Amino acid sequence: MSNANSEKDRALQSIRSRADHLRHTITQLESRLAWYPLTQWPYFLSQFQVISKQLENIMTLKDDEELPESMHHFVCMPRMSTPNPADIPLLLRTREDPEMEKADDELLASERVNPLKRKASWTWEELEGQKLAHTDMVETLEKAFKEASDVLLKEIRVGKFQEKVKPVSTQSAVYKYMESGQWTN
């Protein structure tokens, strides 16, 4: 029994070390991409090939005969959950949370009190009022947009309107500094 456990532990340790190496390789590739954006494409292809091979090795180790059948679908040893015994009734109950039930009841009661919220029970007069209010709001917005566009057109004709220069992105400035070694404005 001890021999079987030691072989299982050895196989798991091998998978863990290869997974750590894979994580390290991916981190290196990400940092290379972030700090050296002009890296040539063949470098990335070779790194992708390395990552692909490492992942393939992990998958073949995972399907090794030394591991028990239950472990063939996991990359690492699953841990047993230890639920708090006080939480078990909460997990097994079939009713909603009392606060949620209370909020649902209040929402249903508020819909019964305010009939305007229920669209099926509106009268023609209420619908006409809603339509007029919407039309007034749209006309007010249209008038405000027309006035704003007239003011903008006048400023353009007079020459007061000046196109603002887009500021240089700090990220691109940092990359230019890394490439050239000089700060530019």
TrEMBL record:
Keywords: Activator, Nucleus, Transcription, Transcription regulation
Family: Belongs to the Mediator complex subunit 8 family.
Keyword Transcription regulation carried by entry: yes
Protein name: Mediator of RNA polymerase II transcription subunit 8
Subcellular localization(s) per the UniProt record: Nucleus
Main location: nucleus
Biological process per Gene Ontology, one example term: regulation of transcription by RNA polymerase II
Keyword match Transcription: yes
Alphabetized GO MF terms: transcription coregulator activity
Cellular component GO terms held in the UniProt record: mediator complex
